[in-house]
Design brief:
Layout lengths: L13 H11 L8 H14 L3 E5 L2 H11 L7 E4 L6 H7 L4 E4 L11 H14 L5 E3 L10 H11 L2 E5 L7 E2 L2 E2 L8 E5 L12 E5 L2 H11 L3 E2 L16 E2 L10 H11 L2 H19 L4 E2 L7 E2 L5 E5 L8 H10 L28 H7 L2 E4 L7 H16 L1
Parallel strand pairs: 2-3, 2-4, 4-5, 5-8
Antiparallel strand pairs: 1-9, 6-7, 6-13, 8-9, 10-11, 12-14, 14-15
Length: about 400
């Protein structure tokens, strides 16, 4: 096989291209009407009231933390098995990070561990102001239980749903924010839909929405009812707080609107491919992804775990052999506290045992809309040979 099979890849069709060209030929390249249209499209899909499109999911997580009031002296918790942005976002605000170990089956934040940690934190008077559950690979965390704990212990909930647009929890779209204050989606090219770079924050709370809108654009408002004194004239605006230039462009939003038309098609194909993997790989010495009964994943990733005690090779050997066969497997993710930057916070090895066990065994197999069954068969055949030989 001479071609390379990536772990993820965008799908762009002619309608997407035409939508972008239409904006390029219009009067608005940024801060125009297509952004609002994209926001409304995503909010409507999720069944939520408000959406704020931003330059990246990382930007979305950052301003969501700020909108939640996270700052110096506050604690926030997230999963160790996620991209560093899920933790960096709270550090940007000056808050203190801690982690909650993962569930060994779903690889999401363990609610049992969360409950234990909250009980102890209350006794020590260091409860989190914000918890950021991450819907790894597109499968929702146990949001109902997390919401119940948030009511009991008084923290806010920000869903890092970067992987999860198009997924469902309890038969409702992920992002409806029934069990959270806000949710963030990513539109990076390897995600379910893409705007090139980009993200969006979803919420049902008007107060958060108004703050997110300002924080996205330098903390500035033109709304007379929010100003501290009367307007000087039609040109007038006020900076009410320290915000950022986290704006998305109309060019990106046009691509997003077009991609949203095919979101259900994209997710259905991913689910079909994941089901096919499950059937073909079921007899190999690996743990297949486990789906909870009340979730319906969007399948951004298909993650297996190696039963290394049944395989005569190391995790690294298997990874490198598959890469040498032009299969672009990946590993999502290295525990965040392994990173050199996070060593200053005094996290210890063996502090989050399930996360570390996962890291030693996990591999993400290729999964994307254009993955052909012949390519998937090749991945499965080579994986079988590498594991069994």
């Amino acid at each position: 096989m001479s071609f390379y099979i990536p772990y993820g890849k965008q799908n762009i069709n002619q309608e997407d291209i035409d939508a972008v060209v239409d904006v390029l030929q219009s009067d608005w390249l940024t801060q125009g009407p297509t952004i609002k249209r994209f926001e409304q499209t995503v909010a409507n899909y999720c069944g939520a009231k408000y959406a704020v499109a931003v330059s990246s999911a990382t930007a979305g997580l950052h301003i969501a933390c700020l909108a939640a009031g996270l700052g110096i002296g506050d604690y926030f918790w997230t999963s160790p098995i996620t991209f560093v942005a899920s933790a960096n976002c709270g550090l940007y605000c000056g808050a203190t990070v801690d982690f909650v170990d993962i569930n060994s089956k779903t690889y999401n934040l363990s609610v049992d561990e969360l409950e234990k940690k909250l009980f102890q934190a209350k006794k020590e008077n260091n409860l989190p102001k914000l918890v950021i559950p991450v819907h790894l690979s597109g499968q929702s965390c146990e949001m109902n239980r997390i919401h119940q704990l948030s009511q009991q212990y008084g923290f806010q909930v920000l869903e890092d749903a970067s992987h999860a647009i198009g997924g469902e929890y309890k038969r409702k779209p992920i992002g409806c924010c029934e069990f959270s204050d806000m949710a963030v989606f990513s539109f990076h090219p390897v995600k379910i839909i893409t705007t090139g770079e980009g993200g969006i924050v979803i919420t049902n709370r008007q107060d958060l929405y108004q703050k997110l809108i300002r924080l996205r654009s330098h903390g500035i408002t033109r709304a007379p009812d929010l100003m501290t004194d009367s307007s000087h004239g039609p040109w007038y605006y006020q900076q009410l707080e320290l915000g950022f230039n986290y704006r998305i462009t109309d060019i990106q939003a046009a691509l997003g609107v077009s991609q949203m038309k095919r979101l259900d098609e994209f997710v259905e194909k991913r689910r079909s491919l994941a089901g096919r993997y499950n059937q073909i790989l079921k007899d190999l010495p690996i743990q297949l992804p486990e789906q909870q009964a009340d979730t319906n994943s969007s399948w951004h990733l298909y993650i297996i775990r190696l039963y290394l005690e049944k395989i005569s090779k190391t995790h690294r050997q298997i990874f490198e052999e598959l890469r040498s066969l032009n299969i672009g497997i990946n590993l999502h993710y290295i525990p965040i506290y392994y990173q050199p930057f996070y060593q200053q916070f005094n996290f210890k090895k063996k502090q989050f045992l399930q996360s570390e066990s996962y890291y030693q065994e996990a591999i993400s197999l290729p999964l994307y809309f254009d993955l052909q069954e012949s390519s998937q068969d090749y991945v499965c055949e080579q994986l079988s040979k590498v594991l069994l030989n």
